[in-house]
Predict the structure.
Amino acid sequence: MTAKKGISLALLVAGVAALWLVPSMGVSDSLLNLLILMFIYTMLASSWNILGGYTGQVNLGHAAFFGLGTLVARILYTGGRPLFLALLAACVVPVAFSMLIGIPAFRLRLRGDYFTIGTLALSQILYITIGNVLPKITYLPIADIQNYQLGPRYHIILASALFTIGVAYALVKSRLGLGMVAVRENEDAAESLGINAFAHKLLALAVSAFLGGLTGGAYAYYQTSYYFNYTFSPPWSLEPVTMTFIGGVGTIHGPVIGAVFFVLLKEWLVMKVGEYHLIIFGVLFLLVVLFLPGGLVEAWERIRRVFTHRPAGKIVLSPSAEGSDLSGNSLASERKEVPMI
Amino acid sequence: MPTTVAQSLVSGILVGALYGLAAVGLSLVFGVTKILNVAHGELLMLGGYASFWLFTLLGVDPFGGIPLSMFALVLIGLIMYQLFFSRLIKLPTEDKIRNSLLIGFGLGLILQNIALRLWTADNRGITTAYAGATFTVLGVRLPYVRVASLVIAFVFLLALQLFLRRTYIGKAIRATAQDWEAATLMGINVHGIYRLSFVLGAALAGAAGTLVAVGYSVEPVMGMHWTLKSLIVLVMGGIGSIAGTLVGGLILGVTESAAAIWISNYRHVIGLAIFILVLLIRPQGLFGAKEG
C-alpha cells in the first residue's frame, strides 16, 4: 500500500466514523433527515449505476425494484416480522422480479433499447396495479410512531448505504466487474474474448435489483406514512438516472456526489423557486448528457488537470458518446460517420 | 349484453385510430433517424394544449385549427431537433438510441413541468357546441366528434402513405431509412431528411394531440401515457409500416376496451402486458418482417 493510498483510506475511515457519530452530537432533526435523504438517494443512484453505468443497460424503470422493496419490507415489518427479515425479503423479491424481464431480454440478445422500454413498461404495470390493489396510505405500527426515533433509523440507513457502496466497489474491482465494462464497451468483442455477456448482464441486473430493493426497504423503515403506490411512481425511476449522470456515470463516487448534490440543490431550489426545481434538474440533466457525459467527476478531473498540468489523467468511462471512443476495436461498419453534404 | 360488447368494441376502434396516429409519428422518426423520442407523448400534449387555447381564447374550431396546432408543433419540433437531437445524429446506432432515450426522458420531464406551471394540473377538454352530440347505429352510441377524429386519423395516415410512396421527398425519406450511405451517394441530403422526418413526426403528434383534446381531454402528465401507448403500437405494428401501425393501434384500442368490460381498472395494464409479451416473443412486431 502506497502512502497516498494509506492517507485516503484513513480519510475515508475518519469520514465514515464522523458520519456515524453525527446523531450523538446533539444536532437538529432536520439535519439528520437531510443526511438520511442523502443516504437513500446515494443507494438509489449507486444501485442503478451498476446496471446502467457499468454494464450499459439503461433501466428506465428502477422504481419497480425500489417500490417492490418498500412494499415487501413494509408489509412484513408492519405485520410484526423482525426488521432484518423484512429488509432481506425487500432485497430478494426485486431480484426474482427482475429476472422476468432480464432472462428473456438478455437471452434473446435483444437490442439494448428493447430492454430499456421493457423496464419502463414493467414499472408502469406495477405502478397501476399496486394503485388498484392497495389504494391506501400505509402507516408504521402505532408503537413505532409513538416513540419514533431518528437515531437508530439513521444508523441502519447509513449502514445500508455503506453496504451498497461496498458491494458496488467490490463488484466493480473484481473480474466480473471488468467483464461488465467489457460488455458495455463492445459486446461482440467481449464475447470473442470468452466473456459470457448474458451472464454478466444478468448478474449486473440482479445486483442492481437487490440493492434497489434494499434502498426501498430502508425507505419503508424510515417513512411514517405514504401511499402504497407512491414508491412505484415515475420520479423514482427518473431520479436515479438524473443523479448518476450529474455525478458521473460508471464511477463509484459519481452516484454519491450526484445524490448529495441533488439533495442539497433540491432543498435549496424548493425554498427559492418551489416546484420549478424539476425543470431546472431536467435542463441540468440534458446539459450533462450532451456536453459533459462524465458528469461532475469529469468536470473535477478536467479542472484538476488544468491546475496540475498533468496530461490526460484517469480516463472517465461512460456508456455514452465517450464510451465509443474507447472501443477502438469495435466493428468498423458500426462506426461509419454521416458525411456533411 | 351484446350491445355493451358492441359499444366497447366501437369505442376501442375509435380510440385505437388515435393510438395509431400517435404512434405513426414516433415510428417515422425512429425508422428514419434511429432517434427514439420518448418525449413524443409530451409533443402530443403540447398539440392538445395548442388547440385548447386556440379554441378558448380565440374561438378557433378545433378541427379547423388542426393546421395551426401542427404548425406550432413544427416549430417546437424544429427547436428540439436543432438544440438536442441533431447532436446525436452522427453517433453509432446503439449509442444514438441510448442517448436519445436519455434526452427524450429529460425533455419529457421539462415539458411536463413547464405545462404544469403554465397551465396547472387541471384536466381540460374542448367543449364545442357539437361536443355532446351523438348518433345511434344498431343501439351503439357514436359521438360525432370521435367519429370525425377517426376519419381524420385515417385521412392523415393515407396522406402520409401517399407522400412516402409517391413524392420525390417521400422516396428520399424511405431511401434514407433503408440505407443512409447509399442515399448519400444518390445525392440525397441526409441531414435535411433527418430534420424533415423529425419535424414531420412532431407535426403528426400535434394533429393527434388536437384529436385527443377534442374527443377526450388533455392534462400536463398525459405525456408518459401516450408515449407508452405509441411504443406499444410501434412494437406491435413493426417499425416503418403505416398499415401495421394502424392495425396495431386498433388492436390495442379494442383489446383495452374489451378488457375494460370485466376489469376496468386494469385496461392500461393489459396493453402494457401485451407489449412486454410481443417484445419478448416477437420483437420484430406482429406484422413486421425480421430486421435485416
Observations:
- Chain B has a mean pLDDT of 86.
- Chain B has one domain: 2-221.
